[in-house]
Amino acid sequence: GNSVTQMEGPVTLSEEAFLTINCTYTATGYPSLFWYVQYPGEGLQLLLKATKADDKGSNKGFEATYRKETTSFHLEKGSVQVSDSAVYFCALSGPDSNYQLIWGAGTKLIIKP
Amino acid sequence: NAGVTQTPKFRVLKTGQSMTLLCAQDMNHEYMYWYRQDPGMGLRLIHYSVGEGTTAKGEVPDGYNVSRLKKQNFLLGLESAAPSQTSVYFCASSRRAGVDEQYFGPGTRLTVT
Questions:
Q1: pLDDT tens digit sequence for A24-77
Q2: Is B61 exposed, middle or buried (0-12, 13-18, 19+ CB in 10 A)?
Q3: Residue B4 and residue B6: Cα distance in Å, rounded?
Q4: Least buried of A78, B35, B59, B97, by fewest C-beta within 10 Å?
Q5: How far apart are the CA of A113 and the nearest CA of chain B, in angstroms?
Q6: Could you tell me which residues of chain A have a Cβ less than 8 Å from any Cβ in chain B?
Q7: Closest by Cβ to B107, choosing from A43, A45, A106
Q8: Contact A35/A86 with Cβ under 8 angstroms?
């Protein structure tokens, strides 16, 4: 079945550091891939998505590229800010899951000033 | 535009008690979802609905019931609460399944003692 694996957290970085949060998936065919973010005390919100191989999703300085050959969708940002501190979830949607979202466990990101 | 709202925000129940969580959305979305979020486990789908009058089981439906009598509302019921149902519950809605963004409510923190 479908599954999503994210790197374990927490990830602690200093402000202006480069960020990578790894996400790999297992699915048949070409699922759609998502990154959602959850700020403290809030619900989740979509950060970016990609719906076909080699697509790059981007938003708020974050980027992720859909790599079919490595079944990955790693989240990157060139220079993080304290306000980026949150929990980041990778997810996929495809026919195997009846197009419902399959979620990774989440990665907590802590940015220190 | 309120988006997705959930009531209540917090609740403490004793084992065996019942309660209903209410979710409302004002975006005219067809799809609605109930998730639970537990530490280190990401989000798990409890039940979902693909339109008014429909419901379907998700990954962890046992111990919960749902109803979608009106398009804008999705109710989650616990008939006999158990400590294992202590969790944060999120409601979400989307226009379609698959590639469309899911919009989340702020969550309900439920403790069962």
A1: 999 988 899 999 999 998 899 999 999 999 999 999 999 999 999 999 999 999
A2: middle
A3: 7
A4: A78
A5: 26
A6: 4, 32, 41-46, 49, 51, 89, 93, 98-101, 103-106
A7: A43
A8: no
Report chain A residues whose CB lies below 8 A from the CB of B4.
Answer: 43
**Tokens 């149902």 found at:** B85
Q: Is B76 on the interface with A (CB under 8 A)?
A: no
Terminal Cα-to-Cα distance of chain B (whole angstroms): 36
| Cα distance between the two ends of chain A | 41
Cβ-based neighbour number of residue A94 at 10 Å: 20
A106: chain B residues, CB-CB within 8 Å: 40, 42
Question: Cβ distance B74 to B27 under 8 Å?
Answer: no
Among B22, B34, B44, B29, CA closest to B101 = B29
DSSP line for B62-82: TTEEEE-SSTTEEEEEESS--
Contact at CB, B43 and A89, closer than 8 angstroms: yes
A83: tokens are: 């306000």
Bond from prior residue into A40 cis (ω within 30 degrees of 0): no
